[in-house]
Amino acid sequence: xxxxxxxxxxxxxxxxxxxxxxxxxxxxxxxxxxxxxxxxxxxxxxxxxxxxxxxxxxxxxxxxxxxxxxxxxxxxxxxxxxxxxxxxxxxxxxxxxxxxxxxxxxxxxxxxxxxxxxxxxxxxxxxxxxxxxxxxxxxxxxxxxxxxxxxxxxxxxxxxxxxxxxxxxxxxxxxxxxxxxxxxxxxxxxxxxxxxxxxxxxxxxxxxxxxxxxxxxxxxxxxxxxxxxxxxxxxxxxxxxxxxxxxxxxxxxxxxxxxxxxxxxxxxxxxxxxxxxxxxxxxxxxxxxxxxxxxxxxxxxxxxxxxxxxxxxxxxxxxxxxxxxxxxxxxxxxxxxxxxxxxxxxxxxxxxxxxxxxxxxxxxxxxxxxxxxxxxxxxxxxxxxxxxxxxxxxxxxxxxxxxxxxxxxxxxxxxxxxxxxxxxxxxxxxxxxxxxx
Length: 437
Prior knowledge:
This is Dihydrolipoamide acetyltransferase component of pyruvate dehydrogenase complex. The chain is α+β, with helices and mostly antiparallel strands.
């Protein structure tokens, strides 16, 4: 019997995938759940397991082919296997809700929520002459390539779920317009550079992940008016707290206590006081998000991913630490769900783990802000004690805040980063990790 392998659905908004690599060739034998191929989307690269045991009889899509969801991409001859169905969909990669983290069974209050709650965001119109549209990255990419402006997209009646504008809707709109109707959006273009004097070297094809990163970064720079503000933070108290608790924390949780959860917690509390930083711009509207979902930049082989920790406003430090550790582990094992790689309302990039002092990260669309955290380093600092100035050795960290000047003014950015600084320097450690002695 022959089993059809079809392109799996990789997320709610994902309608197609790119074949990156086949791990088997025609004639190879394969076991059920053994890795068959790797698929890439504009969100994530995922290893896909075989739906059945048998022999690969046909491969119908080549590397770099873009294939619609549900289309047959391979066939497996299951002769000798007890297979009941002729068509089997490839398993989706495990998502966060499928994979739980082992937590010691102790009597303690719940620190986290397993399922992302449905957001009922507040939408504020900046003017009343346009309709708000739901736009996917794929639609935005085509619109950018075809010179269709955001104001035009908002006028398209979407036929997708909840009024979402689909690629077909956009293509129909493009087909009804004449060439003279389009005014291409002026974008930065990297010009080819001739290097005749350089000897040797080699030229390789850019891989799928790097292409996606390149497109997203360029799109963000073309979309948001990036502005940066920096501030210095005294992390001495947090460093001392981590040093004091790291052994008992590891014994309890089986992973290390790091500084990133403290930065996330301080940022979340600052976002509660500054809702405009926890918002998005949608055409002529501002969407104020009810939940605080923090995207965290995670370095992986060959690039960078930004998965989200959902509902951080409902978690304490312990819950954030557990979610962060599990999320980073799934990301680096390529088992992260595409749905976890979207939905952030604010992003944090902790490049300090690579000993970088300061940086200017690019905003993760559709966020309006991103916080960069540098390395914590001991420095001589002038502090006031008993009405006198003294020089002390303190553990200092540089914060950099990138924000969208279309919505956030300089004063708003300065107030926000000052709140994050205050929250870090004056963090209340009482009951922060209540399960530890």
